[in-house]
């Protein structure tokens, strides 16, 4: 069977060396030396500052909302954030969990990221923030979103779970926004089994979040604010450090797979249009088929050959049972109905990629 994704497992001896160190120090969690080392190495590799590592990518979002003051916990005021219906469920569920009502606006038909015009039209007195997603690692129109956010004095938190290592206009895409969040889940391009991170634009927000992830306890030992336990452990950091050593290899392999799919499928199907001035990470290969019916046929055909392509992202998040939806998101609804993600992972051979692409192409089966 060919899964849609598979975790990357680094060299066992390398991982063991890090774990030996943990045993020697007997320091397992609470901002240990491996978490500190991973923080510094990731800041260097990604070209970012104020990176805070956390237990997973969902907590990264929740901590970012808290640190930037958009969580709906104060008073009885209803808090809202503008977000995209075209993402993984955690983008929306993390908002709801923090008492923030998601307001969905439509995506651009080419980039599949939030349409800035739609964002601006949806801003009301209740809007407390903007939560766009660099979906499949493709850069949002960050300059327009920045401009709108400044004009209306709203914080922007990018869910950058797919955007590890993406460069936009010569610098890390993760440097845009008041905060950008990462997921290091096992199935992501870079992982620490479970894990995540937040990159803050301002040091003061980073400092606040550092207390939030440790029960609200300040560096002086006082309890200054409401907090949670969102810490990354030393074992997670050990895996992260081992995977980070191989990151160039991982990226190169993804690029090869992406290009092989693209070569066969680009002339018959719609694919995501990379934003101008972007160096992609080739983390996913999504393809939009011609109809929902065709999606069902192709997915079935792939399953029969043991290939687990997935309808991803479907359904659009505005149709979740727990959101109050009044949105008109026709682009997201349309793309979501017709999209599938093909397998992309380190161990996938070029021959397999060619076979899968052929199974997808109607005229070749
Ligand atoms: C994976 C993912 C998350 C959640 O990250 P976890 O580490 O699994 O909690 C959030 N947003 C998006 C877009 C994701 O793909």
Describe the structure.
There is one protein chain. The protein is an alpha/beta fold and 365 residues long. It folds into two domains: 12-244, Type I PLP-dependent aspartate aminotransferase-like (Major domain) (Aspartate Aminotransferase, domain 2, 3-Layer(aba) Sandwich); 247-363, Aspartate Aminotransferase, domain 1, CATH 3.90.1150. Helices cover 38% and strands 13% of the residues. The chain has twelve helices and twelve strands. The protein has helices at residues 12-25, 33-46, 57-67, 89-97, 116-122, 142-152, 203-212, 234-244, 247-265, 292-304, 330-338, 350-360, and strands at 51-54, 79-83, 100-104, 127-131, 157-159, 167-168, 171-172, 179-183, 196-200, 278-279, 285-288, 339-342. A four-stranded mixed beta sheet has the order 1-9-8-5, sandwiched between helices. A three-stranded parallel beta sheet has the order 3-2-4, with helices on one face. α2 packs parallel to α8, α3 crosses α4 and α9 (247-265) packs parallel to α12. The longest helix is centred in the last third of the chain and has 19 residues, at 247-265. The model has no long low-confidence stretch (mean pLDDT 96). Pyridoxal-5'-phosphate is lined by residues 56-58, 87-88, 90-91, 133, 159, 161-162, 183, 185, 196.
Task: Give the DSSP E fraction (strand runs of 2 or more residues).
Answer: 5-15%
Run of helices and strands: HHEHEHEHEHEEEEEHHHEEHHEH
Q: Can you count the helices?
A: 12
User: How many beta-strand segments?
Assistant: 12
Give the quaternary arrangement of the chains. Answer: single chain
Compounds present? pyridoxal-5'-phosphate
Classification by helices and strands: alpha/beta
Q: Report the average pLDDT across residues.
A: 96
| Gap from first CA to last CA | 20 Å
| Rounded radius of gyration (Å) | 21 Å
CATH architecture verdict of the largest domain: 3-Layer(aba) Sandwich
State the CATH class of the largest domain.
Alpha Beta
What gross morphology would you assign?
A: globular
Query: pLDDT below 50 for ≥5 consecutive residues: which ranges?
Result: none
Percent of residues in helices comes to 25-40%
Q: The CATH topology of the largest domain is what?
A: Aspartate Aminotransferase, domain 2
């Amino acid at each position: 069977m060919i899964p849609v994704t598979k975790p990357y497992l680094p060299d066992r001896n390398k991982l063991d060396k890090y774990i030996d160190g943990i045993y020697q120090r007997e320091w397992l969690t609470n901002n240990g030396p491996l978490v500190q080392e991973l923080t510094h190495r990731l800041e260097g590799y990604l070209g970012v500052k104020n990176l805070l590592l956390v237990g997973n990518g969902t907590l990264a979002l929740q901590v970012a909302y808290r640190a930037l003051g958009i969580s709906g916990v104060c008073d009885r005021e209803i808090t809202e954030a503008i977000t995209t219906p075209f993402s993984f469920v955690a983008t929306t569920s993390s908002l709801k969990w923090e008492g923030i009502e998601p307001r969905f606006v439509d995506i651009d038909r080419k980039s599949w990221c939030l349409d800035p015009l739609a964002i601006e039209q949806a801003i009301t007195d209740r809007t407390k923030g903007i939560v766009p997603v660099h979906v499949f690692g493709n850069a949002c129109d960050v300059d327009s979103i920045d401009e709108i956010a400044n004009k209306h004095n709203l914080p922007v938190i990018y869910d950058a779970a797919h955007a590890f290592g993406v460069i936009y206009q010569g610098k890390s895409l993760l440097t845009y926004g008041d905060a950008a969040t990462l997921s290091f889940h096992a199935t992501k391009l870079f992982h620490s089994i479970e894990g995540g991170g937040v990159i803050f634009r301002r040091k003061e927000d980073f400092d606040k979040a550092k207390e939030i992830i440790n029960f609200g306890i300040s560096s002086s030992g006082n309890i200054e604010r409401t907090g949670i336990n969102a810490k990354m452990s030393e074992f997670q950091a050990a895996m992260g450090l081992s995977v980070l050593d191989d990151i160039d290899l991982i990226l190169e392999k993804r690029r090869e797979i992406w290009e092989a799919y693209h070569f066969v499928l680009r002339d018959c199907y719609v694919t995501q249009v990379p934003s101008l001035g972007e160096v992609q990470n080739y983390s996913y290969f999504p393809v939009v088929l011609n109809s929902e019916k065709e999606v069902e046929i192709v997915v079935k055909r792939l399953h029969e050959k043991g290939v687990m392509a997935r309808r991803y992202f479907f359904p659009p998040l505005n149709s979740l049972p727990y959101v109050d939806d009044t949105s008109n998101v026709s682009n997201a609804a349309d793309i979501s109905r017709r999209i599938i993600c093909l397998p992309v992972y380190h161990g996938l051979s070029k021959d397999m990629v060619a076979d899968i692409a052929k199974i997808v192409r109607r005229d070749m089966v």
